[in-house]
Amino acid sequence: MVPQADFEQNGFVPNVIFPTGVVQRGDTLLVYYGAADAFTAVVEFSQSQLLETLE
């Protein structure tokens, strides 16, 4: 993940994102994260695709 959205690039600490928690639902990972030290958001990943990429 890299800061791309406006709210990720502008804020108290611009261009910073950091994970804060993960929820697994089957093969889906919901990654909750902080953005620019001013916002929170969630992004969805496929666990199998993530593990495949890491191999």
TrEMBL record:
Single GO term (MF): glycosyltransferase activity
Keyword Nuclease among record annotations: no
Entry keyword set: Glycosyltransferase, Transferase
InterPro entries noted in UniProt: Glyco_hydro_beta-prop_sf, Mannoside_phosphorylase
Protein name: Glycosidase
